[in-house]
Design brief:
This protein is mostly beta strands and 195 residues long. The chain has one helix and ten strands. The chain folds into three domains: 57 residues, no CATH class; 46 residues, no CATH class; 82 residues, Immunoglobulin-like (Sandwich), CATH 2.60.40.3940. It starts with 16 loop residues before the first helix and ends with a strand.
Length: 195
């Protein structure tokens, strides 16, 4: 669909409507067609949904955060390069506080998986069966930092859980674990947060 170019100043002062009819029609048709992009148009097309409702919202990525507008929030997208080079969605308050709402990764919901939190945080989780020394790889390498990792051990038959310790080799791609093990060990569960 080619949308006619909108020309300002029509009808011109002193001209008859007949002499400017074609441009007025093009302006009105173009306005109608522009409003129907991503929206249900005035005729209810497509479908029978209420006119003016959105089908989808396309947001042109910004190069930088927009200037705040006092008393109003602003939703915008911006190109980021965390996991991949792609766009993410942001919210800016009237006071200029900006929160990143999405990131450029698709969550993986499984035993060993990952997702994201607003603000650009990524959290990952998983489990492993321990040996006296075990290397664990994160399902996704953190693009920048690992802020925290938590380990939760489990044991069966009412046996005593013996503490395992991380060796300090925590990296953006994984960690190592060392500890005393027995036949009663069940998996160790872990949770990591980073960006």
């Amino acid at each position: 669909m080619v949308i006619p170019t909108y020309r300002t100043g029509f009808p011109q002062d002193g001209s008859s409507l007949g002499s400017t009819k074609a441009q007025i029609r093009a302006n009105l048709d173009g306005t109608f067609e522009t409003l129907s992009v991503d929206h249900i148009n005035n005729n209810g097309a497509p479908g029978t949904n209420p006119a003016g409702y959105h089908n989808v919202i396309h947001i042109v990525p910004q190069g930088s955060n927009p200037s705040p507008v006092a008393g109003f929030g602003q939703l915008f997208s911006k190109i980021i390069n965390d996991v991949t080079n792609d766009t993410a969605l942001f919210w800016e308050t009237g006071g200029g506080l900006v929160s990143q709402l999405t990131t450029n990764l698709a969550p993986v919901v499984s035993t060993n998986g990952y997702s994201y939190l607003p603000g650009g945080l990524i959290f990952q989780w998983g489990r492993f069966n321990p040996n006296s020394s075990t290397n664990v790889s994160f399902p996704l390498t953190f693009p920048n930092n690992v802020f925290n990792i938590q380990l939760t051990g489990s044991a069966d038959n009412n046996s005593t859980f013996r503490n395992g310790v991380s060796t300090g080799t925590l990296t953006t791609s994984g960690f190592s674990w060392e500890g005393t093990i027995s036949s009663h060990w069940n998996p160790i569960y872990w949770l990591a947060i980073g960006n």
